[in-house]
Amino acid sequence: MRIAMIGSGYVGLVSGACFADFGHVVVCVDRDESRIEALKRGESPIFEPGLPELVETNARQKRLSFTTDLATAVGEADAVFIAVGTPSRRGDGHADLSYVYGAAREIAAALKGYTVVVTKSTVPVGTGDEVERIVRETRPDAEFSVVSNPEFLREGAAIGDFKRPDRIVVGAEDARAREVMEEIYRPLYLNQPPILFTSRRTSELTKYAANAFLATKITFINEIADLCEKVGANVQDGARGIGLANRIGSKFLHAGPGYGGSCFPKDTLALVRTAQEAGAPVRIVETVAAANETRKRRMADKVLDACGGSVTGKTVALLGLAFKPNTDDMRDAPSLVIASALQALGARVRAFDPESMSQARPLLPGVGFCEDAYACVEGAHALVIVTEWDAFRALDLDRVRDALAEPVVVDLRNIYRPADMRRRGFRYVSVGRP
Fold it and tell me: What pTM did the predictor assign?
């Protein structure tokens, strides 16, 4: 199959490279000429483990290419995937669909022969209907189908998620489009992932509902962690006791500073707005979104308490800035709120992250950026572990203690054992543990 991927950002590049690795011929399209030129040179614009090698291999074997020429790529394609951004619209939380609709108009003008137009971007219910209307209005003579095929990729594990998915959801309204989608995903049949064919609107809602449910699990265990701190219980043991139930499962039950990233914050807000407009408000999701924002701010208070009630004039070292390990994504990262709140309280903030510092610098004015973890903690009055990178799980704790001006560690990811840290002479504070 010949595939055109409109958008060469996170979803588009990962999806395009993986489809090419299946044996399809894929052209990734982007308006950003510098991005396309970098990709042609083998330079990935995002950090994702295994992606540079996958791109290089398939580009070398002529299955994957990059261009700014949308018309040619679409004209030669059997299927065109829309994988452009859908950020939260400023002011109201709705998904900004201008990029999706703009892509639909350009695609319509370039269609030649029967083509399946697939929305891979995360979009609200009914977006596919509007894409179909735009294409039909722009090109009444075009022969096409519009399909929803949402992505379920975890940053840091996206290639594995794409090649070994829990499920593939396809919203198709006609048999011909379904046959094309079955052929595109046929290389995965040996892995036997469930392929769920639904209506287009059901597929669109499934993506939002899935992300909202996972965000709810995270927020739930974070609030249980707060309760554990008040009553002397251990949230890690409690989460294990909860998660061992097959009806619940253990994933996304890890207490921390709140969720961030490119999906959960904007998707929960978009679902809330969609539900409000439909007259069926999702009160649980509304509460989840509000509680998550509050939690990020409260993490600064946890640091304040650990420092004796004041950080004025003190230096606080943050280890980890990206919203999760194995990515450089700073979108809605808890570190942004925590660092800003600490600065407002009078602290000097230093930071180190293995991958995200170039993205973080313009977002964190006044923060000092260090070359490694040990330089970051030198002379600091408190160390705060914000992101659980593997490199932070086995720090030389004696060296850390000796480098700190005061032996205070606030572990927002619970990667160390409280008893071990106390034995080494730290004033150690974690999340939801006595």
Answer: 0.93
Q: Mind spelling out the 3-state secondary structure of 245-279?
A: CCCCCCCCCCCCCCCCCCCHHHHHHHHHHHHHHHC
Catalytic residue among 28, 228, 263, 307: 263
- Burial 78-101, CB ≥16 within 10 A → b, else e: bbbbbbbbbebbeeebbbebebbe
263 catalytic? Reply is yes
Helix axes of 283-306 and 200-231: crossing angle, nearest 10 degrees: 40
Q: Where are the domains of the chain?
A: 2-198, 295-429
51: enclosing H helix or E strand: helix 51-60
Using an 8 Å Cβ cutoff, are 311 and 345 in contact?
Answer: yes
Instruction: Compute how many other C-beta atoms are within 10 angstroms of the C-beta atom of residue 271.
Output: 25
What is the CATH T-level fold of the domain 295-429, as seen in this structure? Rossmann fold (3.40.50)
CA 240 to CA 248: how far, in whole Å? 11
Distances from the Cα of 272 to the Cαs of 18, 281, 288, in angstroms? Answer: 32, 7, 10
What pLDDT, on the 0 to 100 scale, is given for residue 111?
97
The residue written with tokens 């791109």 in the block is: 55
Q: Count Cβ atoms within 10 A of the Cβ of residue 310 and give its class: 0-12 exposed, 13-18 middle, 19 or more buried.
A: exposed
Strands (E), 323-395: 348-352, 368-369, 382-385
Domain 2-198 fold is Rossmann fold (3.40.50)
pLDDT digits (tens, 9 = 90+) for 159-195: 999 999 999 999 999 999 999 999 999 999 877 889 9
